Predict the 3D structure of the following.
Amino acid sequence: MKVILKQAVTGIGGAGTVKEVPDGYARNFLFPKGLAYPATKQKLKELEATQEAKAQEIEAKRGEYQAILEKLTDMQVSFGKKATKTGKLFAAITKEVIAKELGEQLKTKIDEDNIQIDQPVKSLGEHIVKLAFSEDLAGEFKVIVLAEEE
């Protein structure tokens, strides 16, 4: 059965990907969890239109995105958080928090979907985070987490 993934599914693909999967896997796992929907002709046309619109938006803002990525090379975002003696944070730093802080430093809006981290940051130290507007427009910056003084 052909399905369109709503979000990334490990071992299958990323959001917006059209994949052929076994019928039972689609009916018993993907559909009930809201991870995918059937790839009908209408849904495939809608997906194509959405991807085309997103590509046009990226192309229109390419200069702006490149300027942001140039500033990003030497940038670091710092957070002071409460942590245990072993360096584990009491509250993780999520993509949303990173996007907001980065946006404030760059004086522009950064969409949290463009921040790429495997998991929220849960420990003190230096972490490398990727900012990607598209496959060819991406850069990395440092997130530094320090222990908050009490």
In short: Residues 41-60 form the longest helix (20 residues). The domain at 62-147 is CATH 3.10.430.100 (Ribosomal Protein L9; domain 2). The chain has a mean pLDDT of 89. The chain has four helices and nine strands.
